């Protein structure tokens, strides 16, 4: 889906790692939350509260989930992170992403 309809946009930015990762929260009409953001090259570790769908829209990165090896996305792709977990990123180029928070 390249476009989101009937949403509420939270104007205040989420800023991480001294501004190298930023996003804006979007709330869909059904209450589902997504964040749309940009990551600059660097290495990062994030933790999750809810299960997350990380959709890479454009860029080049490697990601590592707990107990797994490094995986690569060049261009676009999707990976899922369990709730109450951590994941690591090695971002090689400016990367555009959409994160969806999944309540189970």
Automatic annotation (TrEMBL):
InterPro entries, from UniProt?
A: Ppnp, RmlC-like_jellyroll, RmlC_Cupin_sf
What Gene3D superfamilies does the record point to?
Jelly Rolls
Report the GO terms under cellular component.
Answer: cytosol
Q: Which GO terms describe its molecular function?
A: guanosine phosphorylase activity; purine-nucleoside phosphorylase activity; thymidine phosphorylase activity; uridine phosphorylase activity
- Give start-end ranges for the coiled-coil region(s): none
E.C. designation(s): 2.4.2.1, 2.4.2.2
Which keywords, in A-to-Z order, does the entry hold?
Glycosyltransferase, Transferase
Q: Does the keyword Lyase apply?
A: no
For the keyword Protease, the answer is no
Q: Which reaction does it catalyse?
A: thymidine + phosphate = 2-deoxy-alpha-D-ribose 1-phosphate + thymine; inosine + phosphate = alpha-D-ribose 1-phosphate + hypoxanthine; adenosine + phosphate = alpha-D-ribose 1-phosphate + adenine; xanthosine + phosphate = alpha-D-ribose 1-phosphate + xanthine
Family indicated by similarity: Belongs to the nucleoside phosphorylase PpnP family.
Stated role:
Catalyzes the phosphorolysis of diverse nucleosides, yielding D-ribose 1-phosphate and the respective free bases. Can use uridine, adenosine, guanosine, cytidine, thymidine, inosine and xanthosine as substrates. Also catalyzes the reverse reactions.
Protein name per its UniProtKB record:
Pyrimidine/purine nucleoside phosphorylase
Cite the source lineage: Bacteria, Bacillati, Bacillota, Bacilli, Bacillales
């Amino acid at each position: 889906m390249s476009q989101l309809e009937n949403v509420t946009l939270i104007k205040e930015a989420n800023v991480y790692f001294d501004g190298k990762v930023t996003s804006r929260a979007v709330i869909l009409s059904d209450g589902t939350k997504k964040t749309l953001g940009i990551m600059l090259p660097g290495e990062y570790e994030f933790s999750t509260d809810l299960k997350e769908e990380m959709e890479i829209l454009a860029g080049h990165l490697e990601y590592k989930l707990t107990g797994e090896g490094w995986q690569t996305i060049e261009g676009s792709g999707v990976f899922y992170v369990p709730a109450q977990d951590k994941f690591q990123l090695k971002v090689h180029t400016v990367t555009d992403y959409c994160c969806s928070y999944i309540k189970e």
